Amino acid sequence: MKRQYLSAFFLACSVGLVGCSTGATPADTASGETQIIATQEGVDYSVYNDVLSTYVDDSGWVDYAGLQESRQPLDSFNNGLAVVDDTTYDSWSEEEQIAYWVNAYNSLTLKSIINQTPLKASIKDITGVWRLQKHPIKGKEKTLNNIEHDVLRVDFDEPRIHAAIVCAAISCPPLRNEAFTGEALDAQLDEQVEQWLARPDGLAIDQEASEVRVSKIFSWFGEDWIPSYGVETGFTGSKAERAVLNFISNYVSEEERAYLEAGNYSLSYFDYDWSLNEQS
Q: Model pTM?
């Protein structure tokens, strides 16, 4: 029903049955109008929520083929992100700003995937997808790497973003099928961490084998956990690894927390599956 509603809405726009602004930049998207979605109170994520709830299931797998066929709402949302001005952005709380950038990263990743015809088997098959391809965002042009490494990881001390930004791979955390919001951000990020660690390649504690395995993401970005979770004693491994394990210990049982803190185990990382996180 939602997919039919979205298609009907944009058909109405095209024939003038409802009032729709028409400011799309051809270089930005293949389709979709530009709407003002941001005010000093925050961002209207209603269109993006419809996209996510329609094409992303409860486990975080994406119907890319369906989204590619009806991409106008996603393009419209991305166009709206592009025209957010600095004054409006600066008026938001830190939580609202984080939600804006996380949603932008995820929505622009979806755009990058469906821009490929035919769809690629992995996001790594798209040349320059992280470092070279630029997207209009907040009045500027940024790559996905700019959003992740130059904004989210620099401007905010919030390592839980790594459970929320999704690079369209099977071993990524699950893509949430609702938008992040400033008001609900703390609870949403905690839920994302729980779902991520519950995945087969998120966390495994094997006390009999004295081994703990965690997502490779914790190896790549372990330093991000040091400011808030760094510890001088307990756990095991390097300074970054101890911080990661301290963080993870907040999401396991009391018995497992005690085991992690004791540090009598080896730490290793799961292999990373870069295959597309698409619905089967």
A: 0.88
CB within 8 A of 1, min separation 6: which ones? none
CB 230 within 8 A of CB 242: yes
Contact 2, 51 (CB under 8 A): no
Beta strands in 44-182 (DSSP E): 135-137, 140-142
Selection from 270, 158, 152 nearest residue 217 by Cα = 270
Rounded CA-CA distance 107/101 in Å is: 10
46-76, pLDDT tens digit by residue?
999 999 999 999 999 999 999 999 999 999 9
- CA torsion angle 160 148 269 204 (round to 10): 30
Work out the angle between the directed axes of helices 239-248 and 254-262 (0-180°, nearest 10): 170
The domain segmentation of the chain, as residue ranges, is 2-181
